[in-house]
Each structure stands twice: as C-alpha cells, then as structure tokens.
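Checklist before submission:
- one chain only
- standard amino acids only
- sequence pasted in full

Submission:
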Amino acid sequence: MKVLIFSDVHGKKERLEAILEKHPDVEYRISLGDTELKRKFLQKHDIVAIKGNYPFDAGFTYEHMMDIKGRKLLFVHGHKYRVKYGYDRLYYKILEAEADIALHGHTHELSHQEISGKHIINPGAVNHARGSFTETYMTMEFLDRSVHIEWLDARNHNPVKKRTLSI
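Returned file contents:
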C-alpha cells in the first residue's frame, strides 16, 4: 500500500496538483497542514488534511491516527508539539498514542529520526523549503515487513532521499 504525504503547500495549488497527478496510484493522500487551500479542493482530491498553524488553514483536525498494514501512524502539523525546538513533546505523544510513526510538517525541512524504536518523519515543504534540501514531499510504501520512504523534489518529482524502515 502506497501513501502520498506532503506539508506546507502555502498556496502553491498548481504545484500540488502536479504532485497529485504524478501519483495516481496512492491509496491515501495526507496533508500535514498549512496548505492555504480551500476545504472544497482538499475534499475533491480525497486529501486527509491536518490543520496547521496558518490562521485560515482548511485542515479538518489538529491530529489524526491511522492504521496502515499493522503500523499505527500519528499525523500532526507539529506546532502544538514545538517541533522546531526538539521532539520531546511529540515523542511523549507517540508513546501515549501507542503509535509507531509520527509524521509532521511545520519546520519546512525533511527529516527522519528514530527514538527508541519510534519514528518521527517530516516530508519537508512543498513551498518555502528550509535547510539543505529543495521543496519536497514523500511517498511511503507499506510492505509486510518494512516501510519504504522516498522524499521527492516537489518541482521535478525526482528522488532526493530514500530510507527503508524495518517495522
């Protein structure tokens, strides 16, 4: 099962449409907040949308849990867990929620960190990237014994980084 995950679109509707068009085979489309797009657009494209910190963000809820092939995923934007200052708060939320993976946006930087067997992952930003990478999004493919992650350039859809998790 394949999932498309993105964050921090900040109004770049055409770029997001190109990303959606590039990945018609995904089972789920997940926005981790700050799309700045209308709710009607998100619903039209069957996007599970987390509410970000942008005042008029059309996300549906601040957190969402989903079970995919036996893995529990927690989706948040990240601002409520102060992810710009570290992962302590989000890590404790993962433990409380009994999640395997937490996915967040907000920092505009792609990342993956494993803490005591729990994974905290950021797809980067579709618009206004920070750090050493360009604007990115990611796909996650859930296999029986592993999860394959691929971060892709939001402009040309070429792979930027890959990782396989054994969970």
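Reviewer check: Residues 2-165 form a domain with the Purple Acid Phosphatase; chain A, domain 2 fold (CATH 3.60.21.10).
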